[in-house]
Design a protein that fits this description.
Elements lengths: L3 H9 L2 E2 L6 E3 L5 H6 L23 H5 L6 E7 L4 H10 L3 H18 L6 E4 L4 H7 L3 H13 L8 E3 L11 H8 L3 E3 L3 H6 L2 E9 L3 H12 L4 E9 L10
Parallel strand pairs: 3-8, 4-7, 7-8
Antiparallel strand pairs: 1-2, 5-6
Length: 243
């Protein structure tokens, strides 16, 4: 019964597609634009970069250079129009864009039949950046996904103890240096027994520097298995596969 007001509102005041602007009924995106989203159907189980052959579940780069986390799932390729959705969500506080990204991420997790973690942990923002932005986009994504999957969110378990430079414009090596020792993990003695597998949630996976540092801190705190769940995956540079 609690859905009737929402259904009535969608009927009387239909939504408009956040990409093309045409009427989209009760959804944030119209069916044609939804069909055009660059969803990742087959990807490397470690870095989540798209693969061309179904029998290759780990890409060659990950075979030679294993990543610190155990598995990764990305919903969309980070390119037009996904980059616009992420920016509007992240910097313009478009909750409609965030809801769409969260829905796509949830579908990707369910589609892959991924083992559910004991908890979901959003990548944290430093308190100064959280104050200026007013919300953490990773936590918003995490809570949308957690509500559907029935997994708890531990938003305060991982803390960003040092403010770092923005990663835009930095290469992979500079990002790793920039993010080193930026996080702190607070796991109580009781949670050590209940948290064996956690999922890190972020909006975009580019070089993986931030997620790798988060994984390092979590594993050094006693967590055995770390999954990475992101709404979008940046394509690998043409000269070299992404890390």
């Amino acid at each position: 019964m609690h859905k009737w007001p929402e259904l009535l509102l969608d009927t009387l005041l239909p939504r408009h597609c956040i990409l093309c602007g045409y009427s989209s009924g009760g959804a944030n995106i119209c069916p044609p634009c939804s069909m055009e989203l660059p969803r990742i159907e087959l990807a490397c189980l470690q870095c989540s970069l798209p693969l061309t052959q179904a029998d290759d579940r780990i890409c060659g780069h990950c075979h030679n250079h294993p990543l610190p986390w155990n598995s990764a799932i990305a919903a969309l390729v980070y390119g037009f129009p996904v980059d616009q959705l992420v920016r509007r969500f992240k910097f313009a506080r478009s909750l409609a864009c965030g809801q769409l990204l969260a829905q796509e991420l949830t579908r990707a997790i369910v589609r892959q039949g991924a083992e559910l973690p004991d908890a979901i942990i959003p990548v944290p923002l430093h308190r100064s950046r959280l104050f200026s932005r007013a919300f953490n986009q990773s936590e918003t994504l995490a809570r949308h996904v957690a509500k559907v999957l029935g997994v708890p969110v531990y938003a305060s378990l991982l803390l960003r103890q040092r403010r770092t430079r923005a990663h835009s414009g930095l290469d992979a090596a500079s990002r790793r240096i920039n993010i080193r020792d930026a996080f702190n993990c607070r796991i109580s003695a009781g949670k050590h027994y209940s948290l064996r597998h956690v999922a890190l949630v972020d909006d975009v996976l580019t070089t993986g520097a931030t997620l790798a540092e988060c994984t390092r801190i979590l594993k050094s705190s006693g967590i055995n298995y770390v999954s990475v769940w992101v709404a979008a995956r940046a394509p690998a540079p043409t000269a070299q596969p992404a890390e």
